Amino acid sequence: MISVTLLGAGNVGTHLFKAIHKSKQVSLKQWYNRSIESISSYKNKVSITDDISTLEEADVYILTVSDDAIADISSQLPFENRLVVHTAGSVNIHNLDKKHKRGVFYPMQSLSKSAEIDFKDVPICIETIDKADYHLLKSLALSLGCPVKKVNSDQRHVLHLAAVFVNNFTNQMYRIAHEITESEATEFDLLKPLIMETARKVQDMSPYMAQTGPAMRGNLKTIKKHLALLKKEQHKDIYNLITQSIQDTHASTPLSNRKS
Amino acid sequence: MISVTLLGAGNVGTHLFKAIHKSKQVSLKQWYNRSIESISSYKNKVSITDDISTLEEADVYILTVSDDAIADISSQLPFENRLVVHTAGSVNIHNLDKKHKRGVFYPMQSLSKSAEIDFKDVPICIETIDKADYHLLKSLALSLGCPVKKVNSDQRHVLHLAAVFVNNFTNQMYRIAHEITESEATEFDLLKPLIMETARKVQDMSPYMAQTGPAMRGNLKTIKKHLALLKKEQHKDIYNLITQSIQDTHASTPLSNRKS
Ligand SMILES: NC(=O)c1ccc[n+]([C@@H]2O[C@H](COP(=O)([O-])OP(=O)(O)OC[C@H]3O[C@@H](n4cnc5c(N)ncnc54)[C@H](OP(=O)(O)O)[C@@H]3O)[C@@H](O)[C@H]2O)c1
Ligand SMILES: NC(=O)c1ccc[n+]([C@@H]2O[C@H](COP(=O)([O-])OP(=O)(O)OC[C@H]3O[C@@H](n4cnc5c(N)ncnc54)[C@H](OP(=O)(O)O)[C@@H]3O)[C@@H](O)[C@H]2O)c1
């Protein structure tokens, strides 16, 4: 049985609470949040607190607080030499106060309080300073049903960067499509099956193999037509830059072999 | 019963063949392809030909040939005043020879011969010159199990442009993530659940509401770290431009309300 104390009750904290609460191999000691109101409805399920000095002993303390609060909260913890981890993709492990055994327990997923998620779809990237701590965190992640990946700091930062491309930047592509369809009285809804299929395709095919379209085919007539349709300069810039990127990626594929 | 003759046997032609073959309300008269070999394995299921002069009467002729071949093939058809449609997102309806009744039957989906697709996920955008032809094409699409949307030329071109953003450009975001993860000995596979979830989120939430991340939060420290990690100048340019686009989109949301 692994005992956990959770700090923070935002998107990540709330999902972790639910997963730990469900797990038979993990027990939740305490749940701390700066503002007690956001967790008070859980008080019959777990011991809650907003007083950091009351934290009791646990195998691991998971800090799911905002990136900028990690260093501060880790210093405030009223003990030392216990395992303390944060959940951020781009915060250095050494931001945690060095009085602790330290680790990172980074969930590679987009978590919102309001959206359900299956933890089998939440790969946990684990980084620790001591090897022994890795094994504990690995057991913890597996107990919650998560896939696990051991990473070093550089790899974690690269994964976070890659996540920005496939999540935030992809979502901005959807947003631009939303803007241009709505402004022309067509429906963004029509694009939803295509959005799902585009994501599904790369589940078992490389993005390189999955590419199609006018940029890849070098279809200048269509590209010119599209640029003329775009009203915002910034959208034209994005169209040009990503078209160029696609063409550079596929520069060595003969045009006649490119799928339409 | 609607009778159809299909021309072309690429990605779209092959999927339409299968859907028509399965449908009880649609009969396939003939299947034409320039190179007969690619359809010869179907000869027990449908009358096949590579001789355009042998085409018999049908309610509708669907041209699923490459964009550049549409005008030419439509002129070669050995009849007039029958309904002829093409399936392209960005080809003008008037590229079809004016001796025909003309229409467009544009599937808003990414179709590959090799990948199965459920036709309920293939919205058909229909454009016709005569209203009566619209009703026939609508019945045809519904008979194949497709959602239907009536569009005019401008709307169809805008939808095709939006499809480039959510399909080709999104896929290039995946590609860049693939490049940067592979070059740093991490695994693109770890990103796959996030890719699916990002697509799933906008099925019932606007991309505006779904946005998160360092660009939206104005987290300059992380943005700088990411730029330093990117090795290709072009990737830096893309990172900067899309970060700017996200910030412009959310400029009116106070920073404190932006989700992390
Ligand atoms: N959301 C995701 O998809 C995701 C994915 C991977 C990693 N992460 C990482 O997980 C961590 C939490 O993210 P989140 O999305 O859960 O954030 P969030 O929803 O904004 O929640 C932030 C939490 O931090 C607390 N907090 C903020 N500043 C604090 C301070 N100065 N002192 C004490 N507590 C403070 C908040 O307390 P109050 O309730 O009192 O405001 C809240 O409990 C971050 O490091 C983030 O980078 C997030
Ligand atoms: N694939 C998609 O996801 C998709 C989605 C929406 C719309 N579309 C549109 O649908 C149409 C077909 O696309 P596709 O992906 O099916 O293309 P494709 O797989 O490349 O197939 C092209 C077809 O056109 C034929 N063809 C090409 N040039 C010809 C010529 N000069 N004369 C006669 N036949 C010729 C080819 O015949 P051979 O077999 O003899 O080479 C083949 O049957 C295009 O207008 C495209 O814009 C495609």
Automatic annotation (TrEMBL), chains A, B:
Domain annotation Pyrroline-5-carboxylate reductase catalytic N-terminal: ranges: 4-86
InterPro entries: 6-PGluconate_DH-like_C_sf (IPR008927), DUF2520 (IPR018931), NAD(P)-bd_dom_sf (IPR036291), P5C_Rdtase_cat_N (IPR028939), TM1727-like_C_sf (IPR037108)
Superkingdom, natural source: Bacteria
Domain DUF2520, residue spans: 122-246
SUPFAM superfamilies: 6-phosphogluconate dehydrogenase C-terminal domain-like, NAD(P)-binding Rossmann-fold domains
Name assigned to this protein: Rossmann-like and DUF2520 domain-containing protein
